[in-house]
Design brief:
Blueprint (H helix, E strand, L loop, with lengths): L2 E8 L3 E8 L7 E6 L2 E7 L2 E2 L1 H5 L8 E7 L2 H4 L7 E6 L5 E8 L1 H13 L6 E9 L2 E11 L6 E5 L2 E2 L2 E5 L2 H6 L5 E11 L9 E8 L4 E2 L6 E4 L13 H8 L5 H23 L8 E5 L7 H5 L7 E6 L2 H10 L4 E4 L13 E6 L8 H14 E11 L2 H6 L4 H10 L1 E6 L14 E5 L1 H7 L4 E11 L3 E8 L1
Parallel strand pairs: 18-19, 18-21, 19-20, 21-22
Antiparallel strand pairs: 1-2, 2-6, 3-4, 3-7, 5-6, 7-8, 9-10, 10-14, 11-12, 11-15, 13-14, 15-16, 15-17, 22-26, 23-24, 25-26
Amino acid sequence: MQLLGHVDVKNSQLISGWAFNKESKESIYVDIIVNDVLQARVAANLPRPDLARVNVTDGSTLHGFQYNWPWRVRTMPTEQTEIKVCFANTKKTLPNGLFKFASLIENYSKQIESEFRDDSFWRPSISIQNRKIHLGGYVLAKDLELKSTDFVIQGRPFEQVKFIENEQIQKQFWFLSSRKALFQAQTSLIDSDFENKEIIIDWVNKKTNQPCNLNQRIYIPKEVFNIDKINLPTQQLAARVSGPKINMTQFVIGGYSTYQTMLQIINECTEKKLSDFKKVLDWGCGCGRVSRYFLNNPDAELELYGTDIDSVNIDWCRQNFSTGNFSVAPLYPPLQFEDNQFDLCFGISVFTHLTEYTQHQWLQEIRRIMKPGGIVFMTYHGEFVFLSSNVSTRIMENTLDEGFNSEIPDTNLGTKLPDKDYYKATYHSTDYVRRVWGNYFDILDIRQATNGYYQNIVVMRAI
């Protein structure tokens, strides 16, 4: 057989090229071999008209092949991954068909790893049933044995804890030098848990009895145990903010945890307390998931403003929060507020939905309405999201290369807006946020996987 071919494209998204048997007009196959193990056999039968134009083949154009890498190959440790592209059932490698996968993803892995610093992370989910707390999720324990960690509620250990080795978690976070596992935990509530206004759950280092990540605590407001008596929006309204799978217990705990974590981080970065802020803007307030805790805090002497492009949820806020000032925001600036009006502006999962052009418009507008020295607290989809969700490798690579990606529509609210192309699933690299957002504000700190144990947060100061 006279076999001809070439590998033209090789990156961490796909591999493609062409192959044919000069002695036969039938299509042939190529083997994709990873670490000497056959990964796939791919037919070389895709159109390649360029080959006919340069007289490489017999005049036929159906000799191309393409193979999209599965996630398990993309996330292999780089130093262990060798790729061969061979003519099927032979040991003959195509020209340009032998390479190390490290050359494709090494730069990305280093770029992502550098943003995780020395932190441990967990991503919990919580449910409450019959005075029992159930936790599930996964942990990434930096420089810690899993058996040296525990889950505590109000400082006492959970009654049942189980760590479960999981291959998918290992692959997703392969480059982090941390111990990774799924977990399940359960404990009963006791009477003293209800003596304070809130219940705090932590994942802790047993040796120090300190949280493994102080920015990832679960704060449960006592009111959640009488959830039927809370003035809450309908599940349909909450879904416009938090997605269709949200339940109202998660809605309340998530909003309160965001509120408490925000105040804690702002204090760490600026030494400011809630009492230092007199005019506060919840930019993208939705149905008041976080606003309600500013309004319900008796120690907060402030004016709370909320604005959102979702007029339905703004109507609900106006009807149910009499002490707040709520208004419908336009899709594009300006807002109705005066220059230098606010001491604090926070936006929870807003820049996670805007195109790059729209982002710049709103960064400029927020700068306009902030007092000099005012604090801006925002969230974005960063590196942790790439790894812990189903974001494609192509979008991850594009985001890390360009710093920004907003090509995927978001249907939670997007289909309900007059401009159907406005609302996106948007991703930023942390380097991009530092460079670009830093043109509008002084960036005080960026923390990974903090909001909702998922989104990154950035604390900024108005110049």
